[in-house]
Structure formats: structure tokens, C-alpha cells
Amino acid sequence: MVIIIDCGSVSVPDIVREVRRFRSKMMMVGLQEFEADQMPDHDALIISGTNMNFTDGEFEALREKFAFLMTSDMPTLGIGGGMQIIGQSYRAQIYKGVCERDYTTMTRHTDHAILSHFSYQFDMKTNHCEGITLPAGFQKVASSRNYEVEAIAHHFRPIYGVMFNPELSGTLGTAIFKNFFNLANSYIQNPMLR
């Protein structure tokens, strides 16, 4: 089962649509109701975008709620503000930047499987005005003209994040979800990876 943490993004129904392409069982939990130690058995976690500005200090109230990410082996995908939550859990810095609210060209920096079959440059729908520094323990997977870090992958945990909106990016966006669930399945089925 996939748990989707709804952090207030208007595109959560689009995330649900994309998840249904690959998984039949899912559960949606609101940000305020989410408690990591009280979740039913699940094999993947998606943290949606938010309607918050983390540069206004709004993450501090969430730090304890997401502290589990520091030791989690649960396959996790953070989207937009969800990536910021992951990053801040690993002490990345959030900063105000240029507002991106359209398709933006991304540049891939590694052959990581979260971008499997993506070309060197690709366009994704974006909707953010904040950037993030590279969190400790992560590699930069993609950047854009305005933001040095647009996609990340943890070096050894199955934790990934994208600042762009794959749920709104058509076929390439669907590929992000497909790659994430392929990575999650590999991790779950291979105890040596844990």
C-alpha cells in the first residue's frame, strides 16, 4: 500500500491519478493527521507539495513530525514542498528564488534510476518560488536554469525528491512515478539493499 501525505497542494488528485497507474492500494493522510508511528503497513510513501513557504519558517513545526526520515528505509518520494520537507529533515537550507510556474527545462546530472530513460535535458511543469541546497547524504540528480537542485536521491536510502510537478507533466511525469515504483519494488524485494 502507498501512503500519500497530503500537504495541501491543489494537485494531490493528480498525484492520486498517477499512483493508481502503478498501485491499486493507497491511503491518503492529511499533513496534520500524519503520525509516522501510527501508519498501517505500507511499502511506499509520497509526500505531496504544500501551500506553505518554508522561507517563512513554517517547517519548524514539522521538524519532529518528519524526523523519522533520517532513519527511514521506506521508499519515499517528495514532490515540490515534499522534497523541501525531506531536504530540511536532512538540514538543507531553503531560500527564496525566481518563481517558476510553467514548463521548465531540467538538466540531468547523473544516470540515477529515478530518471531512467530521460534525456540529458527535459521539460517538466514547475510551480515554486523557493530553492533548496543539496541535503547531506544526497546526490543532485537534476537542476534548472534558476535552481541548482531540482531533483535529489539519497546515496543509500530509497528516498527521492523532485521540486517540479511530475503529476502535471504528462508522459515524462508518469515516467517519474513508474521509476519510483520500480525502485521501491526492487528495494522491497531485495533484502540485501536494506
From TrEMBL:
Q: Which residues form the Glutamine amidotransferase domain?
A: 4-181
What the entry lists under PANTHER family is as follows: GMP SYNTHASE [GLUTAMINE-HYDROLYZING] (PTHR11922:SF2), GMP SYNTHASE-RELATED (PTHR11922)
Upper lineage? Bacteria, Pseudomonadati, Bacteroidota, Cytophagia, Cytophagales
The protein in question is named Glutamine amidotransferase domain-containing protein
| Keyword annotations | ATP-binding, GMP biosynthesis, Ligase, Nucleotide-binding, Plasmid, Purine biosynthesis
Q: Does the keyword Flavoprotein apply?
A: no
Looking up InterPro entries in the UniProt record yields: Class_I_gatase-like, GATASE
A family per Pfam: GATase
Species source reads Persicobacter psychrovividus
